[in-house]
Amino acid sequence: MKERNPEKSRLAILQAAENEFAEKGFWGARVDEIANQSGLNKRMIYAYFGDKEGLYKQVLLNSYSKMEEIENKLVLKNLEGIELVKSIISTYFNFLYNNPNFVNILMWENLNKGKHLKEIENSSIERKSIKYFINAIEKGKTEGIFNKDIDSYQIVLSMITTCFANFSNQYTLSRLFNTNLADKDIIEQRRHHTTKLIIAYLTNKGEKL
Questions:
Q1: pLDDT tens string 93-144
Q2: Which structural domain, as residue segments, surrounds residue 74?
Q3: Residues 191, 93: contact at Cβ < 8 Å?
Q4: Mean pLDDT computed over 168-173
Q5: Where are the alpha helices (DSSP H) in 4-144?
């Protein structure tokens, strides 16, 4: 009998678990279904992750790691000022569009008041990229690119939450505005508008994009 590749098995479990948790949340997800979707048995899932909660926490950590990875790639570009702001917003929009599971998992975790995230060590979820963005806004203020009265912490938080809201609320807002906020062209319009909105606030003038 051919020996199974442990890392391949672990990744298969995590992908199946991500899909299951994204669709049903922690409480609705079933380990039996994760085992079925991964092509492995429950015993192996428990051997790798201990229990359902351990598996969920790893999926949660992986979700944040994916976001951190794209943020770090952006940091390496060494962009500053308005170009950095444009890239932050564009990066978040692209990531959220291509990772609907990330959006769903975070929505479920928020419904549960961050119960499991609170139990994860801070060092595992801290993102140096966030501090980089805040410091870059501060630098823009000192160089006269951005308004001096801007709260750099709040503007980075606003960029993240504004981008996320376009995807977390797309179904209800699509109904209210009689449109399809999941449509790629409309998402591009929202990205463009969000960018202009943030830059106008940062500079007191609308940026021509």
A1: 999 999 999 999 999 999 999 999 999 998 888 889 999 999 999 999 999 9
A2: 60-203
A3: yes
A4: 95
A5: 6-28, 31-38, 42-49, 52-75, 81-98, 100-111, 122-125, 128-142
**Closest by Cα among 118, 107, 99 to 53:** 118
Contact call for residues 56 and 22 (beta carbons, < 8 A): no
Checking if the pLDDT of 2 tops 50, the result is no
- CA–chain centroid gap for 116, Å, is 16
DSSP code, position 51: S
**CATH code of the domain containing 29:** 1.10.10.60
Tokens for 111? Answer: 């419904």
The DSSP call for residue 168 is H
- Predicted confidence at residue 1, as pLDDT, reads 34
Burial of 202 (0-12, 13-18, 19+ CB in 10 A): buried
Dig out the tokens for 10 from the structure: 């672990």
CA distance linking residue 143 with residue 106, whole number of Å: 36
- The predicted model scores a pTM of 0.91
What pLDDT shows up at residue 145?
A: 95
d(CA 20, CA 4): 23
Q: Is residue 136 part of a domain?
A: yes
Residue 17 and residue 96 share a domain: no
Residue linked to tokens 């966030």: 130
- The domain spanning residue 166 has which CATH number? 1.10.357.10
Tokens standing for residue 175? 């109904």
Q: Please report whether residue 55 resides in a domain.
A: no
